[in-house]
Amino acid sequence: MEPLSRESSSDESPTQRRLHAIRSHLLPAAAPSDEDDLRSAVQANATSGELVRGDHYSVVLPEELQKGKWNVYRHAVENFCDYKYLGTRIRVDGTVGEYKWMTYGEAGTAREAIGSGLAYYGLSHGMCVGLYFINRPEWVIVDHACSAYSYVSVPLYDTLGPDAVKYVVNHASIQAIFCAPQTLNALLSFISEIPSLQLIVVVGGSDENLPSLPSTLQVKLVSYLKLLSEGRRHLQPYNPPRPEGVATICYTSGTTGTPKGVVLTHGNLIASVAGFCQISKLYPSD
User: Which of 12, 151, 192, 215 has an alpha carbon within 20 to 30 A of 263's alpha carbon?
Assistant: First the structure.
């Protein structure tokens, strides 16, 4: 947990320097008496983490310049731009093949386009975005876009059934829903009963195969690829959330009644990562 000292920095490998930079993002809140106290007394390092530098994000490194009182920054996405991030198994004739990978750089570009696309279609900051499809890279990209542009992600599990999904959409006043062709039909069966909805984005489908919606609904229906394209043409600056801002609302299955929404802030998620970093080390090759 100790920051990298200037004396030892010259002897460190690039990988070790990255690890020291990550660890320096967390500081003990007080001088702990033992390891258990250290794990229960963690706070953010106010001079570390992601800071806005114009339209970009940077990570503060532990090095100091020889002169002046400035921090040294490294652009995180650029530094790991070509590293593998999200992998999808290729299936041929029912056989599982190799992974097709999306890099950190590609994911960062898609995140910016999706977030910008949501803003282009009229979603204001703080609005809820539903994710109504199974795990795939687009799920993670949309969730990242929500964080980067201060939207609230709300998972909608297809195992809940149409009634529970309809309840969650109305309860959270969801304005945009990302779904798959398989879950689109279920969504359309009760679309007239969810007045907050403004936008439906179909992941894995093409615009030519999307059904037409009655004009009285005032709901736009587009493909994920179209939203991606619109976002690229109308890029918006990031709108980073504050720690107390809501990151996601996770609803229960509703086995004891209607689903209950568990509200998690960005501070909650960072605290979870901080705790994880106390017991496990991550490396650039992971």
Answer: 192
